[in-house]
Specification:
The chain is built from no helices and 7 strands. By secondary structure, the protein is mainly β. Strand 4 and strand 5 form a beta hairpin.
Length: about 80
């Protein structure tokens, strides 16, 4: 996933952006965190937090990437 942010204001802003890795209660389904673009990950909740400062008109992007492995025949929902 790619999250793009743009500051449309005429003043600098500070924003805290959060997203979450999926979690599985099933031990047979493994979710591997691949990319967080420097975000801080809470191991229990899977929440990724980015602290971002943007100048007026500036834009940036953050990526969140993961891999899911599971046994054949198991249905996985996101």
């Amino acid at each position: 996933y790619r999250i793009e942010i743009r500051n449309n204001k005429n003043v600098p802003i500070h924003i805290q952006l959060q997203d979450q890795f999926p979690l599985s209660p099933n031990d047979d389904i493994v979710i591997k965190q691949v990319e967080t673009s420097g975000g801080t990950v809470d191991g229990e909740t899977g929440i990724v937090t980015w602290e971002i400062d943007l100048k007026p008109g500036e834009q940036t992007a953050r990526s969140l990437q993961f891999e899911v492995t599971y046994p054949k025949g198991v249905t996985v929902y996101f």
